[in-house]
Amino acid sequence: MxxxxxxxxxxKYYVNVMxxxxxxxxxxxxxxxxxxxxxxxxxxxxHIANGMYGALIVDPAKPRPPAKEFVLVQSEFYLSRNLGPDxxxxxxxxxxxxxxPDHVVFNGRAGQYATHPIDVSPGELLRLYVVNAGPNxxxxxxVVGGIFERVFQGGSQANPLVGVQTVDVPVGGxxxxxxxxxxxxxxxxxxxxxxxxxxGGVGVLRALAAGEAAGxxxxxx
Length: 221
Known about the structure:
Blueprint: E1 2-3, H1 10-13, E2 33-38, H2 44-49, E3 53-58, E4 68-77, E5 79-83, E6 89-91, H3 93-97, E7 103-106, H4 112-115, E8 118-120, E9 126-134, E10 139-143, E11 148-152, E12 161-164, E13 166-169, E14 174-179, E15 185-191, H5 194-198, E16 202-207
Parallel strand pairs: 4-9, 8-16
Antiparallel strand pairs: 1-2, 2-3, 4-7, 5-6, 9-14, 10-13, 10-15, 11-12, 11-14, 15-16
């Protein structure tokens, strides 16, 4: 297991754990931010492309201002045409090496937040922790109809970008985006690499007017 939030010797701790074996280690997360963790066993790209990754959020000692917070992990799936013996699709290694994914997703499912939007309120501060697990595609993160008040690239607390529209999150990286949606309505969030958005890298933030019911048909709870 490779934790990007850790500052420890990988030769000691990021080693293969075989069946019936175990390994324990600990670390102090000293740097605030949005970090990836993933399986580090070779071939690493194959393991990440099969879903062996996640996000670890490290809060600063001085709390961030109150906000409605969400974690979005972008990743890709490369699928074979043929079904396996259990009727599951397998990983296509050549597609992975060719960087041609079948699906680009937020939190594991293509377009899930497009069909089930995320309910928020107009004018409230939203904080989006965006981690890009890859294994190949850069995320050009953008909220349609919004301008980011601040973007902490890599999670750094110093010198945030102010008043920006689209910011790249590299593979294996994470950034923190703050935005307010100024009026009621639907605001898509995407990777602005639109081939990837078309393959599922899209969702919707739904800013509800006062008195409008949340969690109705087609909405996230």
